[in-house]
UniProtKB/TrEMBL annotation, chain A:
Organism whose genome encodes this protein: Magallana gigas (Pacific oyster)
Family: Belongs to the acetyltransferase family.
UniProt keywords, alphabetically: Acyltransferase, Transferase
UniProt protein name: N-acetyltransferase domain-containing protein
One Gene Ontology molecular-function label: N-acetyltransferase activity
SUPFAM superfamilies in alphabetical order: Acyl-CoA N-acyltransferases (Nat)
Domain N-acetyltransferase: 3-165
Top-level taxon of the source organism: Eukaryota
Automatic annotation (TrEMBL), chain B:
Source organism, top-level taxon: Eukaryota
A Pfam family per the record: Acetyltransf_1
Keyword check for Transferase: yes
Transmembrane region(s): none
Protein name, per record: N-acetyltransferase domain-containing protein
Protein keywords: Acyltransferase, Transferase
Domain N-acetyltransferase: 3-165
Organism: Magallana gigas
Family annotation (Gene3D superfamilies): 3.40.630.30
Gene Ontology MF terms: N-acetyltransferase activity
């Protein structure tokens, strides 16, 4: 049994969908997952690509199964320029402790360094102590704890109501 | 004295740089601004565009000055698909209270609605009560307060150290 880390292909989308759900269950938010396979395929591999992804592929006796992924996209800091945001990072529980996570996250970080991105950012639930410890051990900084940054969201009717305020020429 | 809200042009970059610095001073983080005008021009208006921007322009007696901006880019939720992240949103103090902010933020939200983005996200410092109150009045949700999301960052030597763990095939 070997585990390889590689860039995702369109044919990986079902496996990535399964892992997206695995991560949502782990975060106790599985009811919030509205993603459909066709949307993920189009948005990741269509004419406009909204994300990139590394996958960990367990190969044994000619069969392969995705057991981890790190999905990311470029963001922009008006203070430091191009950065990367790691939207999802997950390894199936039975494959943890083997360094797969480090290889996945390392791949995202390598892209950041190669593309001269100043930062890799990501979000973690405050109650997720094992993940927080994992990230802090690797030198990540909790910007909410240290600088008191809060993440805000506009959605639904509040989003639509504000959209009606636009009078752009 | 009319104030026009419009999409930014490359020629607006100096005005946007001035506002980026004003916002950083307001956030008490001006020492963190490393951005240079050539970088902003290239990254916003070059071959690969990392952000989009609306500006509020004050026009009087044939002269114009940028007095506010809202800079944003597309992000991706594996639960809901395409979203928008509003990286910076700022109106110079002397022009507040005139609805310019609502028009700028409204323009970003209108793009979100037109492009079928489920959410507009942004970050606010926890001590910035006046901004927090403003956003909450518009129906925005503090996800750090409500769901305990923390923003993490990897940068500098910690980022490079993680990058060295990559062994992608």
């Amino acid at each position: 049994m070997s585990i390889i880390v590689r860039e995702a292909l369109q044919t990986d989308c079902q496996g990535i969908m399964d892992l997206i759900m695995g991560l949502a269950v782990y975060e106790k938010m599985e009811d919030k997952v509205k993603m459909k396979l066709e949307t993920l395929q189009e948005d990741g591999f269509g004419s406009e690509k909204y994300f990139k992804c590394f996958v960990a592929d367990r190969q044994e006796n000619g069969a392969s199964k995705l057991i981890g992924y790190a999905l990311y996209y470029y963001i922009y800091s008006t203070w430091e320029g191009k950065c990367i945001y790691m939207e999802d990072f997950y390894v199936s529980p039975e494959y943890r402790g083997k360094g797969v996570g480090s290889r996945l996250m390392g791949s995202v970080c390598k892209i950041a360094v190669e593309k001269k991105c100043a930062r890799v950012q990501f979000s973690v639930l405050g109650g997720n102590k094992p993940s927080i410890d994992y990230y802090k051990r690797r030198g990540a900084i909790d910007m909410t704890e240290v600088e008191d940054w809060h993440l805000f969201r506009l959605t639904g009717s509040a989003l639509e109501k504000l959209a009606a305020n636009s009078n752009t020429v």
